Every structure is written in structure tokens, then in C-alpha cells.
């Protein structure tokens, strides 16, 4: 049994229950369900209400920063003590003038509410790291789909960061991603699908013909990451499951 450290169940709409059922049959028994914008906060909370192994994450992705409503976020966090924050972040591929302000606002909210926080960062670690140095921080941070540099890992680890990788990091030609997987300390490593996005290679899919990524693929992704990390597959499964729980509980 293990945890999918980042996915978007609201994107599956009416299929969500069936998608979760198939994932559970493959041994995935906890799901960190991220939101992308205020438009899916209610959906994420509703899924977690009916599916007790789904942990709701409420936040605004940098692409949708203009839509952010922090007062509503605070209200929902107050009403839902099990809710975490995410995904929030910075993304140079989706520039807009609201990104940094909205990221700061959400990070400070996570710190004030003492909620673990999932962070998206693409080609913006030169902005993220200085902000993490000066802003109040939540108890733990999960850098999902980590794509920074090896040299940034110690800095981020000192600030309570965990790191997750998806199946997209395991393609044979992703040399940088493989290097990062090897460099992240075992006690800070988690694994995600980022379903329905970030399609993994065919050997990381139970149904290679499926056009969407699914949380049921997580065990195959763990197997591939274990090979890259040069560690026993079952041992890695235990480690990443334990790490996901520590992140969720706000511990290091």
C-alpha cells in the first residue's frame, strides 16, 4: 500500500470513483488531491468527503493566479481542518503579473494555518529559493515534479522540503531528472502520478493504450524510480509511503 503524492482527481469528474477503485486494487491507498484554481476547490473537498483516503489540497496554480481568492481559501481552511494547501507556485512558462504576489500570499497562509503545502516550480527556482529564505514557512513543503538543480536540494531540505517525481521523469532520455532522483535524500523522496497529466512511458502504464495517466500506474512508476535510484523496489515503496505520511503530518 502506498501514497500518490500529487494528482488531480477533479479532472476525472464522474469517473473519479472508478479511477480510485482501480488504483486501490493496485495497492495505492492514499491520494494527495491537488487543486489548480478556486474553480475546483469545492470539487476537491467533495471528493475527499466521500473518499476517506483522499487528502484535499486547496490552492491556486501560478497559471491561474489572476483567479485567486485568499479570503475564500482561508475560510475553507478554517472549515476543513484536514485540508492542506496546493498546488501553489511559480512558473516561467506561464508568466503573469500576479504570480509572485499570489504565491507569497498562499505560502504565508500555509505558514499561518500550519498546513503542509504542495509547490509547483518550473524554471523559477532562482525566484523561489530567495522567497523561501525570507518568508514564513509552513511545517513542510512538497516540491512536486521537482525540476531544479542538485545544488538546490540541501537549501530546500533545510526548509522542510520533500521532493516528488512522476513517471514522466523516468523516460530514458531524461538524464537531468534521473540525476535529481539519485541526488534527493531517501528520507525526503516521494512519488506521484500527477494524473491525468504527465504521461509515463509505456512500461509504467498498466494499460499502454490509455490516453490519460491514471493513479493505478503508481506502483510501476515506483518500480522504475527504484531502478534509477538503485534500491530494492519494496524497500523504496515503504520509504516513499512513510515520507508521504511525514509530509502530510507536518513532520521532518
- CATH architecture classification name: Alpha-Beta Barrel
The tally of structural domains comes to 1
Run of helices and strands: EHEHEHEHEHEHEHEHH
Strand content: 15-25%
Uncertain spans? none
Helix proportion range: 25-40%
Radius of gyration: 17 Å
Name the CATH homologous superfamily: Metal-dependent hydrolases
Query: So how many helices?
Result: 9
What can you tell me about this protein's structure?
This protein has 252 residues and is of the alpha/beta class. It has a single domain, classed as Metal-dependent hydrolases (TIM Barrel), CATH 3.20.20. Helix content is 39%, strand content 17%. It contains 9 helices and 8 strands. It has an 8-stranded parallel beta sheet, with helices on both faces. Helix 1 (16-25) links the parallel strand 1 and strand 2. The longest helix has 16 residues, at 233-248. The two termini are 21 Å apart. The model has no long low-confidence stretch (mean pLDDT 97).
